[in-house]
Amino acid sequence: MKFGHRFKETLKKEGFPPDWVESAISYSQLKKCINRLTNELAELGLEPETLRKLLKHVEDYNAANRGDDDRPLEYLLSGEQDDGESEKKPESNQLFHPKLLFYVNESTGELDSAHLNEETRHKLQLLALETGMSNVRVVEEPQPTESDIPPSSPTSGIRRRAGYRTVEVPLTSDSEFFSRLAAELSGLEDLQEREEKRMHAEIEQLGRQVARLTDPDRRASRKIINTWREIFQVYVESGIFFGTTEVDHGGHDAETAAERFQRFASIVAEKGLVDRLKGSENLRALNRFMGINREILQGLRFGEINRTAMTKILKKFDKQSGLGVRSTFPRRIEYPEFSEHLAKAVCAEVHTQILSSVPQLDDYSCPMCMDIKWRPVRLRCEHTFCIRCLIVMQTNKQHYCPLCREKTVIDACSDNLDTELAAFLKKWFPQEVKQKQRYNEHMAGVDQYGEVYTDKCCVM
Amino acid sequence: MALPKRIIKETERLMAEPVKGISAVPHEDNLRYFDVTIDGPGQSPYEGGVFKLELFLPDDYPMTPPKIRFLTKIYHPNIDRLGRICLDVLKSNWSPALQIRTILLSIQALLGAPNPDDPLANDVAQKWKEDEKGAIETARQWTEQYAKP
Ligand SMILES: [Zn+2]
Ligand SMILES: [Zn+2]
User: Would you state the pLDDT for residue A344?
Assistant: First the structure.
């Protein structure tokens, strides 16, 4: 199946919202532009074969990194703005004036290159000589003095060469092509901004809802809290949109993300977590959570197919026109990082707004014993440990904080107990706090009476 | 004495999310004793070798660092004939916040970047400084001879 067709089908089938579909890259329109451009060029005697040969020659020169003084022609995407690095991010509504230029020696009428075959050179010379008579026009460049010539930089606008005329081939379909593409890309960017805002509101709302449903102070049942906690734990471990392990880090493509999401959903079902969420409000909230994730997935997929469409259409542009634009294009227009950017921003929100409503034990474990940080002690360096580990460190004369190596362990005392964190832990993890409290007391007994204490009350 | 939560958690994570090129499996009858293997890092003379180590967590771990030793013979300026390793984080720079995982990563990095200025095996370090090419060649030969799986 041809890509254009597949693209259209995907846009239709995937259930994207209508305004997304409208903003998609208009692959078939752009293809028509290319066809018109090919005709324009053919009328001028510049068939793709000829142009490709010329550009191959230019490329060879660039590759060899030699002076580019005898490049026979150039295809510049935007003459005026083309001053290299400073124009990395063009305005998205910028008009494109692509220019096809080649150089002719004024005195001899020779085309500025000895590396072309006779036929091609002849063709181009004819074109140049027809100046003014046909639709080829000659731009007279002022004669620069030697010092005016900038040190050869391949990106510097229309280069001026002593004794040469710059011949510009006027084309219209290419301007149309690039203006259209640029407008569509900026449209996609706007769409992304809108979507981000919309989802932001949605996530915030759901976050508030989950917070309310799981608030122990509002007598949410322990069972409900634990169920939500487990769902979110599975969610984080599933690493749907981003990997979190050493081996798998960074963003996932839509296919991987869809797979992971599927797996997440089936684990939640297998564990019977849905059934444990009693009450319609909880179930509704879970459905919304799933819905938000599906939307992120759709955003990813939409971004991916549009990016592919853009790559394909540029490839087609080059193949059919022979103008070799692909190597320079990415610097001119950037594809908006639709998928990754949106997914990243929204995932961050899901974490801060929704997942954080239900604290996870792992986020409150002591870096030393990896058990819950009970009772929590905050050192001067702001690092927190459980009181048991602090005692162990102090008895072992470990004066420095294990995390930052500041000398903050030695002077910690009862003033360092973090009562606020203690209240929080008690509220969210009453079971774990009770267990750790028992353990701490037991270990204090061991400290006092020695290992025999262990034998007497093996409560662990 | 029951196994501390920390050791259980570390072991679980090592099993669930293994580090690339590293394995650490506790003995069934002594959960403080691990069989470790480290793959020689690419672009090092240890590339292609699989090195066996033993790792033991002392009673007061993590107050004191794990005890680790190479079992496979290896030619390296910071590892001596008995397989003992000269690595700051295993000695003065140990911190109870470090873990088995981080330590094994440090050892893997040490294989990729030998440091002959802080030697444990003096003769090897000497050779390394005088004739690096030759030393690397020897290390490669030893890998070939002793560390092939
Ligand atoms: Zn602790
Ligand atoms: Zn600290």
Answer: 77
